[in-house]
Amino acid sequence: MGRYYDGDIEGQFWFSVQDSDDASYFGVEGESPSEYLNYHFHKEDLEKVLDGVYNCECVLGENLEKLNRFFNEDGNNGYNNEMLMEKYNWTSKETTANIEWYARLRLGEQIRDCINKTGQCNFRAEL
After folding, report:
1. Residues 8-15: what's their mean pLDDT?
2. Rounded CA gap, 23 and 71, in Å?
3. Which of 6, 92, 118, 123 is deepest in the core (most CB within 10 A)?
4. Which of 99, 69, 68 is nearest to 82 (CA)?
């Protein structure tokens, strides 16, 4: 069963890769009055989000282009770690780390784009 986030942005957290509080990496802590974390990013938070996105890109380095190509250009609707390990000669540990940072980057880009478009980004994340 997947965990989702919805509101100004929506999507599904990457199964067994991404925690429900991953958006906290981008400078705003989620509030948890229920089975959800509520996030409220404002225009003033954009600099922290940009720093987080940049940091994700730096950590991924040249692997970012490989992952973009794998998920976007190669038409992979599904994947497993073994596919990435074989294609890029990564170890299991490298693959896990790259996927975690890539999933985080994609979430950060959604938050950034939403703030740029509307001046804020509010969403809730299933725990």
Report:
1. 92
2. 21
3. 123
4. 99
pTM here is 0.88
Sheet holding 11-12, edge to edge: 11-12, 4-7, 120-126, 36-42
pLDDT in tens, 52-104: 999 999 999 999 999 999 988 766 667 889 999 999 999 999 999 999 999 99
pLDDT over 70 (residue 1): no
Cα 23–chain centre separation: 8
Q: Are strands 36-42 and 120-126 parallel, antiparallel or unpaired?
A: antiparallel
Q: How many residues does the chain have?
A: 127
Report domain extents, the chain: 4-126
Q: Report yes or no: 84 and 102 within 8 Å, Cβ to Cβ.
A: no
**In terms of Cα–Cα distance, which of 108, 126, 106, 98 is closest to 21?**
126
**Dihedral, 25, 17, 13, 99 alpha carbons, nearest 10:** 80
